[in-house]
Write a structure and sequence with these properties.
CATH superfamily of the largest domain: P-loop containing nucleotide triphosphate hydrolases
Mean pLDDT: 81
CATH class of the largest domain: Alpha Beta
Low-confidence stretches: 1-37, 456-462
Bound molecules: adenosine-5'-triphosphate, magnesium ion
CATH topology of the largest domain: Rossmann fold
Structural class: alpha/beta
Strand content: 5-15%
Number of domains: 3
Largest sheet: 5 strands, parallel
Number of helices: 20
Radius of gyration: 26 Å
Strand order of the largest sheet: 2-3-4-1-5
Distance between the termini: 42 Å
Number of strands: 10
Order of helices and strands: HHHHEHEHHHEHEHEHEHHEHHHEHHEEHH
Shape: globular
Length: 472
């Protein structure tokens, strides 16, 4: 039986071989009915247990090669955590080279922006390691909703030893006592000018301050202070540089008061990963976990993730565990299919009930493909897309016009989308963050399965029919 027959449920069925409807897959994902978990002689399953201890020791009952593979898989693919270890970091060579050059050659400050999960935090962690290797003092800080300039920069200054301040010899008593430049900041709320006055006297080293998840803090005052600090540091060629990272569709969304500092920053939108980089990510996980992905399984993951390391990591993780659960160390397309259903269930769980109902109605009406396209446009443009992005998606003018009409209908009715008017014109975004990846995976799953079928059966509705469906 071919793998596609197995996914599509043709031929003899076994428990986890078919791509199940979503509701079933939620059950499959969350309540595995595992005969092996039953106590001998009992009809009741034994009470669920953790499989490894807090010290990462595998339960002796499970210490076979599958138990070990499961543990290694968890470390190899970490969808809910950024990569901090360089050995696990895939691709991004060009991006890193560009970042290092701009920090080192141009001595500018860097702003990294991009969609959720595109790999900003992983990138800044690896950049931080490279800078530490070059003896920079690197201070990483993850911003919070209530980040405050005074608190943040006192903490940053506390990481810079006083011996690097021009006013103190390395043998000065204060430096020997282990004091830091924080001790030189005046009492009270510290201003960007006062911070840059102290930083201006740093010698003998370079300091890299990484402010990650910058989008989470929406205090205008905090953002204005950061822009002012960048301006002050740049005007005085200070040996302190900032790297700011956050979710945004464009630079101005992330850093306010940009006009005054545009010349002093290098802004980089983190691009989606190339196919070869996604393969690299999967191969890294393979070598760490000892499992292997069959080429069609790897293609399935690459196709659905479409350059998103988060989605690739999530699917690799779930499909690896699905295979191991079935007593295999080789991951096939059917395992990825289970993983895709699990990922859909996870994203669906993050979507509000009204949006779920709207999606169900629209996909039934045949707007699935258009929604999938819009989801892609949103995910790979930092959450926002405009008419020009639609023209790129639909090279035919008539289809692009139809798609635009669907968008306007949905926006006018407040269904899933909302319009944003600003200095750059009209653009659109999904009302809920989890909707684009959900729709994207749903459409990619269908595309992949259709492309693998000899005859794809029912076609998606043509754009004109989809437009009518959105209207109804
Ligand atoms: N270069 C990479 N190599 C391997 N895995 C990666 C890479 N970049 C990102 N990932 C994986 O993708 C996922 C998302 O990465 P990360 O947290 O760095 O993204 P982010 O852009 O900071 O996300 P957010 O917008 O939520 O802050 C993580 O699971 C991480 O393990
Ligand atoms: Mg992040």
């Amino acid at each position: 039986m071919s793998w596609i027959d197995r996914i599509l449920g043709r031929g003899p069925k076994s428990k986890a071989q078919t791509a199940k409807p979503l509701a079933n897959s939620i059950m499959t994902a969350q309540v595995p009915v595992d005969a092996a978990a039953r106590k001998p002689g009992s009809l009741l399953p034994s009470f669920p247990k953790f499989q490894s201890t807090a010290g990462d020791q595998l339960s002796p009952k499970l210490s076979d090669r599958f138990g070990a593979a499961r543990m290694k898989l968890r470390a190899a693919f970490t969808p809910s955590q950024p990569v901090v270890d360089r050995r696990m970091f895939a691709g991004r060579v060009e991006v890193l080279t560009t970042l290092i050059r701009s920090l080192e050659d141009q001595r500018v400050h860097v702003v990294l922006y991009g969609e959720r999960g595109i790999g900003k935090t992983s990138l800044v962690h690896v950049l931080a390691q490279a800078a530490r290797d070059a003896r920079y003092i690197v201070i990483y800080s993850s911003c919070g909703a209530t980040s405050n300039f005074d608190e943040l920069f006192r903490a940053v200054a506390a990481e810079i030893p006083l011996l690097f301040h021009s006013g103190f010899a390395p043998t000065a008593a204060e430096a020997e006592r282990g004091q830091s430049v924080a001790d030189l900041l005046p009492a009270g709320e510290v201003s960007p000018r006062q911070v840059s006055d102290v930083f201006a006297k740093i010698i003998g080293t370079r300091v890299l301050i990484i402010l990650d998840e910058f989008d989470i803090c929406n205090s205008t005052e905090f953002r204005r202070n950061i822009a002012e600090l960048i301006k002050n540091l740049s005007d005085r060629s200070v040996r302190v540089q900032l790297v700011i990272a956050g979710v945004a569709g464009d630079l101005t969304e992330l850093v306010e008061h940009i006009p005054s500092i545009r010349r002093n920053i290098f802004a980089l939108q983190v691009p989606k990963m190339a196919t070869s980089e996604i393969h690299h990510l999967i191969e890294n996980g393979q070598s760490i976990s000892g499992v292997s992905f069959e080429p069609p399984a790897m293609d399935f993951i690459t196709s659905v993730s479409n350059g998103s390391p988060y989605i690739a990591c999530l699917l690799s993780h779930h499909s690896g565990l699905a295979a191991v659960d079935k007593g295999r160390l080789k991951i096939g397309v059917e395992d990825v299919s289970v993983a895709v259903d699990q990922a859909l269930a996870e994203f669906q769980g993050r979507i509000s009930r009204p949006s779920q109902v709207q999606i169900e109605k629209l996909t039934k009406n045949g707007v699935r493909q258009i929604l999938g396209m819009l989801a892609g446009a949103s995910m790979f443009n930092g959450g926002r897309f405009d008419a020009a992005d639609i023209d790129v998606l639909y090279p035919s003018a008539a289809n692009a016009a139809n798609c635009r009409e669907v968008i306007e209908e949905l926006t006018a009715k407040g269904i899933l989308l909302e319009a944003v008017e600003d200095e750059y014109g009209r653009s659109y975004r999904f009302q809920e963050e989890a909707v684009p990846p959900y729709l994207w995976i749903l459409a990619a799953q269908k595309r992949f399965l259709d492309s693998a079928k000899p005859s794809s059966g029912k076609e998606e509705a043509a754009p004109a029919a989809a437009r009518a469906a959105a209207r109804s």
